[in-house]
């Protein structure tokens, strides 16, 4: 029986996480990733993942599954929360599952830096449907938004704020957050996101939205 390819695939993912986070997605060669993974074959990455985007997608999928698993129970709770408190519950459902990656020593901090680059670059590996829990979050947030807020891309702005803030935190420090630091960070971020979601659209902004 031939050996399982999974250990080699996991090593390639780990090497890709580290190098993409350190140097940027487009600044690392596929051969470098293969070598860093310990592969004897210089084209091991192409064999297992096809190309750079294939490996990048594998990294994103690995962590997105973990984030979805953490977010879904929070979305369940938010859906049944009384309306005055629902915006903050939904803000927490956006922030907390991603912030938990700061404590994930299996590439979590690297993932936060990589996903921020993916979200802000012109060429993205993501194709097709969005991350399932984010799609569900968007649907639950829609009724909470003030009139005309959806047209100002409030939901994407909130996702972008969370992603970039956590990526910066992950890059600035390679140590796990203390319980107090983590609580302060996430509570403050939830405050900001709740405000982003619920602040009324000004008359000035609404005038610019008019056709």
From TrEMBL:
Keywords in alphabetical order: DNA-binding, Transcription, Transcription regulation
Keyword DNA-binding annotated: yes
Any one Pfam family match given in the protein's UniProt record, by short name: TetR_N
Gene3D superfamilies, sorted: Tetracycline Repressor, domain 2
InterPro entries the record matches: Homeodomain-like_sf, HTH-type_TetR-like_transc_reg, HTH_TetR
Domain HTH tetR-type: 6-67
Superkingdom, natural source: Bacteria
Protein name, entry field: Helix-turn-helix domain-containing protein
Species this protein is from: Patulibacter brassicae
């Amino acid at each position: 029986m031939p050996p399982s390819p999974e250990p080699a695939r996991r090593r390639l993912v780990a090497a890709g996480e580290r190098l993409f986070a350190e140097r940027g997605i487009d600044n690392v060669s596929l051969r470098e990733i293969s070598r860093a993974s310990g592969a004897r074959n210089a084209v091991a990455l192409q064999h297992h993942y096809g190309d750079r985007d294939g490996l990048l997608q594998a990294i994103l999928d690995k962590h997105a599954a973990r984030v979805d698993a953490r977010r879904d129970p929070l979305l369940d709770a938010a859906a049944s929360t009384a309306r005055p408190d629902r915006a903050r519950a939904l803000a927490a459902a956006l922030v907390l599952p991603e912030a938990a990656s700061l404590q994930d020593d299996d590439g979590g901090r690297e993932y936060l830096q990589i996903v921020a680059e993916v979200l802000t670059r012109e060429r993205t590996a993501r194709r097709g449907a969005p991350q399932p829990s984010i799609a569900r979050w968007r649907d639950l947030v829609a009724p909470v938004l003030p009139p005309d807020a959806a047209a100002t891309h409030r939901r994407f702005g909130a996702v972008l704020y969370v992603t970039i803030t956590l990526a910066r935190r992950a890059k600035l420090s390679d140590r796990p957050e203390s319980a107090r630091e983590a609580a302060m960070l996430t509570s403050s971020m939830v405050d900001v996101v709740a405000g982003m979601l619920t602040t009324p659209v000004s008359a000035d902004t609404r005038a610019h939205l008019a056709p």
